[in-house]
Design goal:
The protein has about 50 residues and is an alpha+beta fold. About 40% of the residues lie in helices and about 20% in strands. It is built from two helices and two strands, in the order H-E-H-E. About 5% of the residues are buried.
């Protein structure tokens, strides 16, 4: 995988348990970022 999130995940970046606020997270890039963070174990709050 050639993305920042993919590289971070493969290197054990420590995203598990991280608390994150994603603005504009209901769609588009914000949604993709939120989904990626959730998949990596972060606790995500979405504001639209």
């Amino acid at each position: 995988m050639n993305t920042l999130a993919g590289n971070a995940a493969s290197e054990g970046s420590g995203l598990t348990g991280l608390r994150v606020i994603v603005t504009a997270g209901a769609g588009g890039i914000g949604r993709a970022i939120a989904d990626t963070l959730i998949a990596q174990g972060s606790k995500v709050h979405i504001c639209d």
